[in-house]
Amino acid sequence: MLRLLRLLLLLLLLPPPGSSEPPGLAPLVPGAPPQAPDLLYADGLRAYAAGAWAPAVALLREALRSQAALGRARRDCGASCAAEPSAALPAQLLRAPEPDSGPGVWEPLLLRAALRRAECLTQCSARRLGPGGAARFRVGSTFRDAFRRREPYNYLQRAYYQLKKLDLAAATAHTFFVANPTHLQMREDMAKYRRMSGVRPQSFRDLETPPHWAAYDYGLELLERQEAELALPRLEEALQGSLTQMESCRSNCEGPEEQEEVEEEEEGARSQRGLYEAIAGHWIRVLQCRQRCVADIATRPGRSFPVHDFLPSQLRHLHEAHAQVGNLTKAMENVLSVLLFYPEDEAAKKALAQYQAQLGEPRPGLGPREDIQRFILRSLGEKRQLYYAMEHLGTSFKDPDPWTPEALIPEALRQKLREDQEKRPWDHEPPQPKPLTYWKDVLLLEGVTLTQDARQLNGSERAVLDGLLTPAECGVLLQLAKEAAGAGARSGYRGRRSPHTPHEHFEGLTVLKAAQLARAGIVGSQGAKLLLEVSERVRTLTQAYFSPERPLHLSFTHLVCRSAIEGEQEQRMDLSHPVHADNCVLDPDTGECWREPPAYTYRDYSGLLYLNDDFQGGDLFFTQPNALTVTAQVRPRCGRLVAFSSGGENPHGVWAVTRGRRCALALWHTWAPEHREQEWTEAKELLQESEEEEEEEEEEIPSRNPSPEPPNQKLQRVQDKTGKPPRVREEL
Known about the structure:
alpha+beta; eight-stranded antiparallel sheet; four-stranded antiparallel sheet; 24 helices; vitamin c; endoplasmic reticulum; oxidoreductase; Pro_4_hyd_alph
């Protein structure tokens, strides 16, 4: 009921038809407290899957707004509570422990400060977020990963396109693309938006990237054009934005989500800890997270490596720009700040001497920037504690900063850390990502072409690619299926008739069964090897197109042939395969798709690679969640791959095969390595063993009894040798 009321409320808040949409993703209800972003996101995806574009936009926007509001509330409460004298940690607690500190001296100070800080944060959170505070909004790692990858914007761009809001569709597409630059499907979408007459160039704006990056890039561009006076405000904005983003990142380190995964992993060990061990472990994780913020703010969206020495490099640009416009006081302030990071930096010392000579008289009150002093003092204090924990508690810490003074590091750790310092990837030129044209040229080479993308298929996460198989390869796989069926070998389904219709025969062959038959000499080894090779070819291409940043694993591979039964096709009303989704149970009445057993919930992407087209019927089709309204249809042909995400956004079925025999390779992929297809590995090993045995037999003297063993006996021996009985798998 609450979810329905939320949906109705957001529908009322949508702008009326014809009204102008505010730029970007403005809050739907200014000043309203945030709602649970994970529930909003889930509701938004359900509305999207149902084709309710306006509610989907409202819910997804509100999820983004609420997530941002939660971050701001946590940051603001953390800053205000840290400023309260009674809640501040005593200065002596921020240093590494002294060996001669008296027992029990610090305990009352620590506990009093911790209790007061907790009270302050609880009260502030309740004022900002309502009763219960931040505890009501704790979300899981899956949700956080989705927002980190900007997945809501992928759905938003499609929904905006359906609502004919092309400017916002282009903006949300661009926002997703910035963080996922190797996503080929979005690249195709971006190219189409640029060709649309109703989309303006300024529509391609990033709605998520922290503003310090835009100021930083523009400031450097102005410096290159020798326009230092114009560059200075931008460079200063970039530095202040970087420090602000740093504070936001650090505040997130104190949230419950940051500790969630580590605590789950260490549940057993933590149960054996005492009070102080648990406090120390939690505090060390907070400090480690805070130190990682340096690299986080220096890493552009969509990049794997941070900009080298990000903060010191900004200070170098600032002091050079101030010197160019004649503001030597500011130039000295910034170069002195550089020397806080690198006291022996020759270029900075030379610039400082030059500025002092030009000023002519000493300036006793002139020193480094206060914001940089605070940053360095705080960072060094945290590093001391982390290195102490490394030395005495056996914890780990990878220092993100090349400027850390060696004297701060305990002598026992210096050699090891020096070796790690030399291996740090961002101390060298980071590998440049391949251009998008490279991915298309390499992965879609050898005649593979993108025939239809998601928009042409009227959906999302769908694609049709042609040319994955040559006619000769299709013939080899068709012959493999024919030989296996002729030998009576069946795998994947029980019974001769299809499990989905009484009007068709079904033949299924797994990769392991094909390898066993090849080992027994019942089918040709060429077909079994090609079956393995082609399945990997499909997996590689599916990952490159849909999931370039996250590896996919094959979870099941099935060579499937459906044959129409003669005399049973007249007035036939059923389907060859009813409408379904591959990783959830589809409920056409409500449009819901429940990701729970008996569905194969671990499947993330599906693929159908067709081998022939000499039959009637048998086209694949996609529908809306009601399982009735067909949104797209694909005709099989040799070498054609239809790939799509496995969830409720892609309900699909197969029209009845009314004449002939339709063969295809069905593949399912998963992000979960624990669900990778073990039979694929077993099949590969079995075929390799066969090759080795054949090579050995060629070197041996021919046997006195050249007659081959009967196929059925030989097959049984192969199965016994593997140590596993023949498996029968039934697929939805």
